Structure formats: C-alpha cells, structure tokens
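Handout for the seminar on molecular recognition.
Each group receives one record of this type.
Step one: identify the two inputs.
Step two: read the structure output and locate the region that could contact phosphoric acid mono(formamide)ester.
Step three: write two sentences on what you found, then compare them with the reference statements printed after the record.
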Amino acid sequence: MPDTPATAAPALQHRHLLGLATYSADEIQRILQTAREFREVLERPIKRVPTLRGVTVCNLFFEPSTRTKLSFSLAEKRLSADVVNFSASGSSVSKGETLKDTAQNIEAMKVDLCVIRHKSPGAAHFLTRCINGVVINAGDGAHEHPTQALLDMLTMRDHFDTFEGLNVSIIGDITHSRVARSNVFGLKALGANVTLCGPSTLLPVEAAHLGVRVTHRLDEALEGCDVAMALRLQLERQSSGLFPSVREYHEQFGITRRHLAQHPDLLIMHPGPVNRGVELASDVVDHERSIILSQVTNGVAVRMAVLYLLAAAPAGAAA
Ligand code: CP
C-alpha cells in the first residue's frame, strides 16, 4: 500500500464538506473508495502514513462528542498531520468571544483545515465566510453530519454489493437528526430506497418532500428492510410533550429481539450514543446482527479519506 491511495485525481468538486446535499454520487463513491484504501493502513502494526505531513488541522468542538472527536483526531494523527484541539468549555468563548473571532484567531496561528461541531445549524457554512482554510462539518445542530453518513454508507456497502435498490429505514427522532438528513441525501444519491419512521411529532412535515417513504408504523418500516438505522431520542433538543413517555416510545418504536426474529436478514445500525432500552433493546445493541461498532471502526478511515481529499482540493472548487 502506497502512502496515498491509488485512486487517481484525488480532488473533489467541493473545497469544503459542509453537507451531502450538494455532493454527487461520484464524489461520495470517491470518498468511500479512498476510505477502503486507507482501511488497509489501519490494519498495519504501525498505523501511520506521511500523507498530511506539514498540514495543520484544528478540531473545534462547541458541543460534546466521543466518536466524532476521537476519530477525527485519530484520522489526523494516522495521516501525520499536526493537530490542535479546541473545546468551547475552558476557552475564551466563556468570556464572550464569538465564533468568528475564535476561528480567525485560530487561523492566525497558521491552521490549514478546521473541523467544526456546533449546536447551530449553518455554523460550518458561516465558518467558510470567516476563514480561508478548508472546513469540515462534524455536525451542526439538526442540519447535517456528513462524515457520519459517509461512515454509515461505507458500513452498509461492506454487507451489500450495491446501494441500488437497498432498502434502508431510519427510525426515531427524525426532526432533530442531522444524521438522518445526511443519510437521506447520500443514500438517495447512490440509489437506495429510504424510509423515515417515527411518531408524527418527531417527523418534520418537509420529510414528505425529500423523496423518501414516510411511515409512523415500525412494522411497516421493517417490512422488506435490509438495514434499520435507529436514532437516539435527543431529549436535550426537544421541548416537552412530543410523546407520552420514554416507555411508550420504546413500545411503539423500539427495536427488540421480536423484530430480529421476524426479519432474519435485518441489520441494525445506530450512530451513537445509544439510549439502551429506548430506541434499541439492550440485547439488540449487542446482537450479532448489530453493526454499530463496525460503524465506529469505519469512522476513522472515512475521516482519513475526507481529510486527504479535501487537503488536495483546489482553492477554486465549489463550497
Ligand atoms: N455519532 C456521533 O456523532 O457521536 P458523537 O456525538 O459521540 O460524536
């Protein structure tokens, strides 16, 4: 394996990764193929290549994260980038410094590429107007979480030959889910059939305009389904009264062993963190048909691919 993937012409059409809404099927496939090539590096005894030597990346996390923050950090280190980490807690944000000033001060220290997670939808777009460097969205409010959807698609592709005609049901709190939005855009671009399922209070009205099937019945969502992606009930983003109780939510929308028995080929995914016993029964999380930890493993390779391809993107590429 060379230090950089064999894939010719690494540049994407985009200069940043803000969301998958504007990414073409070719660009998504390019990222997935590059991630597959980087996976081989992660199997080596010394999991490091010099690909991004001399490139400085700052991870700006204004919201809590375990998987995304650690896997970006690992991906950057595996590529030999110089990495600095910023967390809003303990920073000058607590003294009132704005996102624009924070970002411009960080860039003044000669940072080439910023990864940002923020509670506000559009924060990553905003950052592209404040700094000259490349921006990668690591989750902005309920808008998009593109690298999560890319690692989800890589994990699906490990189990199925093609996305064409693949039936994927995304179940749960769709309204507050950036993961659902990015998966809808990415999966549809690649030819999958997407169903969104949840209580009407957690399914936005615009879902009907996304070119997906919408249902409020879990049994209907699981019929003929290849992959069920359960979503976390985001209690911290909800106003009260969106469903009667967590127990009732689990009874209507929680996936249990009964569902696995009814659908013997069904695979279970979840972006994490999981509320065990709410969107998934605890023994479903640990079941052999749960591929949740494979998603996490694939996150490092996908983020290596995104960092590599965007670091090579021409300055004049589309946002
Ligand atoms: N899936 C995901 O974004 O998890 P974290 O919030 O832990 O990064």
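Reference statements: Residues 237 and 317 are 34 Å apart (CA to CA). The domain at 160-290 is CATH 3.40.50.1370 (Rossmann fold).
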